[in-house]
Design brief:
Layout: E1 2-5, H1 10-21, E2 27-30, H2 41-44, E3 54-56, E4 62-63, H3 66-76, H4 87-113, H5 134-155, H6 168-179, H7 192-202
Helix pairs in contact: 1-3, 1-6, 4-5, 4-6, 5-7
Length: 209
């Protein structure tokens, strides 16, 4: 296998944490978004959509989305399970992973990519240039606040995001919450349940990668 990573971006970090939680050592190549290396001919030969992460499987397939990468690794290396054991657990993990992508990851990205000078005319990842829309950034910030409220409510009743076991959903949530620092947003001090969960995940070795 060959893993294409970017050490500064949140989505590759999600895959990197998943790989680490599985205890795997996979050959890795760094692709610098800051240098625009994802747009190079060499990388676009791997992933024509020019997004990171990407995993080249032992069978020669190329997986370019976190969910696909996670599903492949979970199937090949089922222990420890990160996507549930029972049908109910599997459904909950995928449901909550989708919720945090839509309600957490997307608004953080909107707020960052529609304001930061580095993303001028690059408001959406990929091969097509899109101009920044400041109103989307303002909406993104409001939505991140609502996301923190959603998490606090969830952690009042649940040890981890999708239930009683650490999972892919926790990895996604942790990465998005941590990355919200780039738009100067943090877990509110009063959200004690979320802060307790965050500290618990942050103590895992994979969180330092």
């Amino acid at each position: 296998m060959l893993f294409y990573d970017c050490s500064t971006a949140p989505n590759p970090r999600r895959a990197r944490m998943f790989i680490a939680e599985k205890g795997l050592e996979i050959e890795t190549r760094e692709i610098s978004i800051a240098k625009g290396e994802q747009l190079s001919e060499a990388f676009r030969a791997v992933n024509p959509r020019a997004t990171i992460p990407a995993l080249v499987t032992d069978e020669g397939g190329v997986l370019t989305e976190n969910l696909g990468i996670a599903a492949y690794l979970e199937a090949r290396f089922p222990e420890p399970p990160l996507m549930g054991r029972t049908p109910d657990e599997k459904g909950m993990v995928l449901m909550w992973n989708s919720i945090v992508e839509q309600q957490g990851g997307a608004p953080v990205a909107d707020a960052l990519r529609n304001t930061h000078p580095a993303f001028k005319d690059r408001a959406i990842p990929g091969t097509v240039n899109y101009e920044q829309i400041p109103a989307l950034a303002q909406r993104g910030i409001a939505r991140v606040g609502a996301f923190f409220d959603l998490l606090e409510e969830r952690f009042q009743d649940s040890r981890f995001v999708a239930g009683e076991a650490f999972s892919l959903a926790d990895i996604s949530t942790f990465v998005f919450v941590d990355f919200a620092r780039v738009i100067k947003m943090r877990i509110p001090e009063g959200n004690t349940a979320t802060l307790g969960w965050f500290e618990k995940v942050q103590a895992r070795p994979s969180a330092s990668l």
